[in-house]
Amino acid sequence: MSTFPNTPKLLKGGIILLDPATSAVRRIIALQYNPDTLSRTLQVQGVGNESGDRSEALRLKGPPVETFKLDAEIDATDQLEIVDGTATAIGLHPQLAALELIIYPSSQQLNARNAQAQSGTLEIAPMEAPLTIFVWSAQRVMPMRITEFSVTEEAFDTGLNPIRAKISLGMRVLSVNDLGFAHKGGSLFMAYLQNKEQLALRSRNGMFSTLGLSGI
Question: How far apart, in Å, are the Cα atoms of 95 and each of 28, 83, 196, 213?
Fold first, then answer.
């Protein structure tokens, strides 16, 4: 680690899990290494189709559907070098489990659902997951749902515990259309949108002459 006092602190991307009812923080997961690339797609939510009513051509139904894709690497080499007890015993299993459990219902929820079914409950509500927040700098703090999750385990110790792996994540940002304005996730989305609007104001405005025009 550099000893220079002016060395900038490297921030990590990560995921925060909030209780959906109380918004209490359940877990914070920081990525061990920041991915080199982050892919984003925005799908416009227009009204009608390409040949729709002219009166609807400029109307939007809501925010675009925004998706993210990234590949994150995790490695137990450093922990193994300092003889970290957990890494030595079970490798990367804890880190992988923490990420994978984001898309699992808990065993308590499954047992409760089974008990309801066994007691003859006619209508059983789907199980609710934590509110998942993706953080990629202070400019991007977004409620989201994981839509794709794959793991490639690339190296193992003598006990076949993974010690190097790559996790590929696909995520969909949840907007107020998904959560509503009163929901904690809805307020986080509005803060994300308002921050985007403020960032756009800091972008230099173009000129007609740059486009070869004198006006419109």
Answer: 12, 17, 32, 56
CB 111 within 8 A of CB 105: no
- Torsion 192-145-43-64 (CA) sign: negative
**Rg of the chain on CA atoms, in Å:** 23
Distance CA 122, CA 211 (A): 65
Residue type, 158: T
Q: Cα separation of 165 and 88, whole Å?
A: 16
Are 170 and 148 in contact by the 8 Å Cβ rule? The answer is: yes
Question: pLDDT tens digit string along 79-122?
Answer: 877 777 888 899 999 999 999 999 999 999 999 999 999 998 88
H or E element, residue 107: helix 107-118
Summarize the chain as % helix, strand, coil (round to 5): 30, 30, 40
Asked whether 11 and 137 are in contact (CB, 8 A), the reply is: yes
- Please say whether the beta carbons of 67 and 172 come within 8 A: yes
pLDDT in tens, 187-206: 999 999 999 999 999 999 99
